[in-house]
Specification:
With 579 residues, this protein is of the alpha/beta class. 52% of the residues lie in helices and 10% in strands. Helix 5 links the parallel strand 5 and strand 6. The longest helix has 25 residues. The protein binds arginine. The site of arginine has 10 residues, from helix 12. GO terms for molecular function: arginine-tRNA ligase activity; ATP binding.
Length: 579
């Protein structure tokens, strides 16, 4: 149990003993201001109001019943009825010692694991991945890692766009090039160029456009030869995405791909079910659901087209089919979507409709975790100098090159091999961290210099803090595993750091509940900053430090290092022993 849960339980018990009904919350949280203790319980005020008694007196009765023996050194009432809890140094020291050899760093595996389906990355396969795919891929991956760390059963779903009219165009192009004697793999070597070329043919050549449209029909009716070409296209395109995931240290694998095409056979069933329930109606030859729930200001219901005139299905139809699959076959308790904020209306329509049609049981949580746009230095969506989309592969290459130049300039005495490793981890880490550390829902400005800085809330700063602790251990000639589990807390700096380290599971709770990785970033930055203060105030390697003190401080340093490493790993960012 983490500190917050423990204290919450204790205060809750005291509240009940004070005669407060069980449904009143203790409102317990870490104190926001110094001088108000380490944690604060604010529940007395609301309870007193309902019970029509004096809040300070009620807070006193709660305190009289509060048993924090050995845990807190002081409790007090402040203001109108806040209860401030000051934790005892001894207790914090004991708790910190339990983290020394705990790979979970106090995060017990959850007692009731949920099945969580996470839909993320999900690029359209027609083109190369571009910067617009960065956020979904890395934010989703951070959540997946954190949920698994807590012990949930996570099912990744890469809902790639591998179906639809653009594939007719691409297949027509592929066939032309194969006829010209190119192997499919060769023709598709430059995915982006291939797409542009087929688009050009489609727009300019009437014959080609007609063939492309015929291919769509053939593809959808299961023509084997056309399906074969489509498979080839898909394979090359997916291979490209896998290379990006590898470079980005994103955990998505081939088996996580379940694209729009996987739901092809379910689409008529979805439409039939919606018609049968009287939800879908014919409108100008199309099948449409009008959602009153999402009506605009004038009261016009929000239309969702689920089948076009002529029979074609839409993005929303496959999302509805995917929801049925995720709840019925995958048995999800919670389904998270990491998609750009510009698709908020779409997701809202899909969720509303799925609930209405009872495709999704009431107890399944459907969550669209939207994010803002990555902007260039000019404050407009990030583009190349000539206004084109930036390929994710080139952005990542540039990150590694820039990191390599920085490392070379710093010249920390690394071998060539180490330099390559460090450049990779720092470059990719910097890009990811710069993104993950911003509040997900906001747009942010992409800035190379800021993200690669060794100062401030950046990946290099945190990676450096980690290597710094490793170098302390090298200098001390001690292995962390040799440390006796004996920790003492005697100074403010030790206490502040230890308390922070013990809050790791609380932070993860918030991260996975709200799907906000920036909360973890802020936390890790606090850990690194508190470590630097601790190291300044509490020398470890100096001669006059006695062995017990030195070992205790090494112990705290080790837990700090493990917390940084584990936390960064949950963000998909790697650490190294030297840099
Ligand atoms: N392929 C879509 C796009 O690139 C994103 C898919 C997101 N997931 C979903 N279930 N709709 O815009």
């Amino acid at each position: 149990m983490n500190i917050r849960e423990l204290l919450n339980q204790k205060v809750q018990q005291a509240m009940q003993a004070a005669g407060i009904p069980a449904d009143y919350s203790a409102h317990l949280a870490p104190s926001k201001k110094a001088g108000f203790g380490d944690y604060q319980a604010n529940g007395a005020m609301a309870a007193a109001k309902a019970m029509k008694t004096n809040p300070r007196e009620l807070a006193q009765t709660i305190l009289d019943n509060l048993d924090l023996d050995g845990i807190a050194e002081k409790t007090e009432i402040a203001g109108p009825g806040f209860i401030n809890i000051h934790l005892a140094d001894n207790w914090l020291a004991q708790q910190t010692a339990t983290l020394l050899n705990d790979p979970q760093l106090g995060q017990e595996k959850v007692a009731a694991p949920q099945t969580v389906v996470v839909d993320y990355s999900s690029p359209n396969l027609a083109k190369e991945m571009h910067v617009g795919h960065l956020r979904s891929s890395i934010i989703g991956d951070a959540l997946v890692r954190a949920l698994e760390f807590q012990g949930h059963r996570v099912i990744r779903q890469n809902h790639v766009g591998d179906w639809g009219t653009q594939f007719g165009m691409l297949i027509a192009e592929l066939e032309d090039q194969i006829e010209d004697g190119e192997a499919a793999e060769f023709a598709l070597k430059d995915l982006e160029g291939f797409y542009q070329q087929s688009k050009k043919h489609f727009d300019e050549d009437e014959d080609f456009a007609k063939r492309a449209r015929d291919y769509v029909v053939k593809l959808q009716s299961g023509d084997e030869r056309v399906l074969g070409l489509w498979e080839k296209f898909k394979r090359v395109s997916l291979h490209h995405s896998e290379e990006i995931y590898e470079q980005l240290n994103v955990t998505l694998k081939e088996e996580d791909v379940r694209g729009e095409s996987a739901y092809n056979d379910d689409l008529p069933k979805v439409v039939a079910a919606l018609k049968k329930q009287g939800l879908a109606v014919e409108d100008q030859g199309a099948q449409v659901v009008f959602l009153e729930e999402l009506a605009d200001k004038e009261g016009n219901p929000s239309p969702v087209i689920i089948q076009k005139q002529g029979g074609g299905y839409l993005y929303a139809t496959s999302d509805l089919a995917a929801l049925r699959y995720r709840t019925q076959s995958l048995q999800a308790d919670r389904i998270l979507y990491f998609i750009d904020a510009r698709q908020s209306l779409h997701m809202n329509q899909v969720f509303t409709l799925a609930r209405k049609a009872k495709f999704v049981p009431d107890n399944v949580s459907l969550e669209h975790h939207a994010f803002g746009t990555m902007m260039g230095p000019d404050g407009k969506p990030f583009k190349t100098r000539t206004g084109g989309t930036v390929k994710l592969a080139s952005l990542l290459d540039e990150a590694v090159e820039r990191a390599a130049a920085l490392i070379a300039a710093k010249d920390p005495g690394l071998s060539e091999e180490e330099k390559v490793e460090v450049a990779q981890k720092v470059g990719i880490g910097a890009v990811k961290y710069a993104d993950l550390s911003k509040t997900r829902t906001n747009d942010y400005i992409f800035n190379w210099d800021a993200m690669l800085s060794f100062e401030g809330n950046t990946a290099p700063y945190l990676q450096y803090a980690y290597t710094r602790i490793q170098s302390i251990f090298r200098k001390a000639g001690v292995k962390p595993t040799d440390l006796a589990a004996d920790i003492n807390i005697g100074t403010e700096a030790e206490k502040a750091l230890a308390l922070k380290l013990l809050q790791f599971p609380e932070v993860l709770d918030q991260v996975t509940r709200e799907a906000y990785p920036h909360v973890l970033c802020t936390y890790l930055y606090d850990v690194a900053s508190l470590f630097m203060k601790f190291y300044e105030a509490c020398p470890i390697l100096k001669k006059d430090v006695d062995t017990a003190t030195r070992n205790s401080r090494l112990g705290i340093a080790h837990v700090a290092a493990q917390t940084l490493k584990t936390g960064l790993d949950l963000l998909g960012i790697e650490t190294m022993e030297k840099m």
